[in-house]
Amino acid sequence: MDLDTLSWDPEILETFGIPQAMLPTIRSSSEEYGTAKEHSVEDVAIAGILGDQQAALVGQTCFEPGEAKNTYGTGCFLLMNTGTRKIDSKSGLLTTVAYKLGDQPAHYALEGSIAITGALVQWVRDNLGLIEKSSDIESLARTVNDNGGLYFVPAFSGLYAPYWKDNARGVIAGLTRYANKGHVARAVLEATAFQTRDVLEAMEKDSGIKLDVLRADGGMVADDLLMQFQADILDRSVIRPVTKDATTALGAAYAAGLAVGYFKDLADLRANWSVDHTWKPNLTNGKREQMYKLWKRAVSKSFDWID
Length: 307
What we know:
Elements: H1 10-16, E1 30-35, E2 45-48, H2 52-59, E3 68-72, E4 76-83, E5 94-99, E6 107-114, H3 118-128, H4 136-141, E7 151-153, E8 171-173, H5 181-207, E9 213-217, H6 224-234, E10 237-241, H7 247-260, H8 266-272, E11 275-279, H9 285-302
Parallel strand pairs: 3-9, 9-10
Antiparallel strand pairs: 1-2, 3-4, 4-6, 5-6, 7-8, 10-11
Helix pairs in contact: 2-7, 3-5, 5-6
């Protein structure tokens, strides 16, 4: 699809030999496409179509340019609404359509994908056996006051945004005899927050918009230590909504609800969204920048590991 015209791109179709007649009609994210026929939901309108991360953006009610959400799961997916302005990234991000609500103009987004976040916690559980269940990572990390100088770059299959280094591999840097499993656990959690800052800085550079707050959802947002460190390393507030594990489903429901008149407008959706907890940064600027400098140094050590 051509991101400017929101129609099928004839040049790409010709390149791949795809007849346009065999493709579906491109429609908005919020309108009535038909009705269900199955008896249990018979005559219920099908009225919302959103991609996974776009749905989470809508579910977090990020409707204004510069509003952003990060979904913390096996990987992380950070999207920033750039409004009706399509921004072609020069910083290693993807440009995508965020949503188009009925006849209103399409809104675009910048997207940054991080391959390994929650998956690193699973690796510590399954491959190292340091914890019995994923949620134990927080209590293990709390046995120490800091990371002990450890930085864990989980480039297990390369690095995604904003680096795009497929020949990078995982690195644990800063090991000393002082380090213990608590420091490893802390470095594991901090890796997610550092990678999120990498992507967020790329977004701010591309968009020219400074993010005020980051809205967070997904399984890892239950980890208070991670969320606090995320606020610390970003130097801005991190917000967890009441609906934190089903934000994608909520966004799809919002789109459908708008189409059938269940919700009146975007203000109605914002009124339905509520905050569970807000973390504010609590780290000195000197400490923040020292830690981020060491993280960037560790990332550089993961580059070009495979010839």
